[in-house]
Design brief:
With about 160 residues, the chain is α+β, with helices and mostly antiparallel strands. It has one domain (about 1-140): Aminopeptidase (3-Layer(aba) Sandwich), CATH 3.40.630. The protein contains 4 helices and 5 strands, in the order βααβββαβα. Helix 1 (about 10-25) packs across helix 2 (about 35-50). The radius of gyration is 16 Å and the shape is globular.
Length: about 160
């Protein structure tokens, strides 16, 4: 079942958030630090409590096996060089390791697209680590395309 998260889901979400964070550390140990559970709570709770943020979860047999943390954004803070529109940013998408390959990620992406339609958004966007080619292929298979590249130069 796909649905919006409520506060009682936070522990299940944080289990997956930990899994995702460990993956991020593996890709970029130079910028992602190991952190403790209370920090995760402070990161994920606002998605449930704040307007303009939500967590869409996949729940099967009473267990959360995937989630997408989303934010409703708009271009109103620009200097007028960009048309005004709303878009959805997927801040995180994670499927439990033991549930991958079962269509949960696609179901979550479909739910994100529907969420975007409900919010009258123009598009959905997200960031993905350059090394995470598996995720890039997943997103492309779900209709996403590369809109830009963000480059980085390491000083130290």
């Amino acid at each position: 079942m796909i649905r919006l998260a409520v506060m009682s889901d936070i522990d299940g979400i944080n289990v997956l958030h930990t899994q995702l964070h460990i993956q991020h550390i593996g890709y970029r140990p130079d910028i992602f630090a190991p952190i403790e559970q209370p920090v995760f709570d402070s990161l994920m709770v606002p998605y449930i409590e704040m307007d303009g943020k939500d967590i869409i979860i996949s729940e099967n047999d009473g267990m959360i096996d995937g989630y997408a943390a989303v934010t409703v954004c708009d271009t109103s803070k620009g200097a007028g060089e960009i048309l005004l529109f709303t878009f959805i940013e997927v801040n995180e998408l994670c499927v439990a390791e033991n549930a991958q390959g079962k269509g949960i990620g696609t179901a979550l992406m479909d739910a994100v697209k529907e969420y975007a339609r409900e919010k009258n958004a123009k598009f959905v966007e997200l960031g993905v680590q350059a090394q995470n080619t598996e995720a890039q292929e997943f997103y492309k298979a779900n209709g996403m395309f590369v809109k830009s590249y963000k480059m980085q130069f390491r000083i130290q």
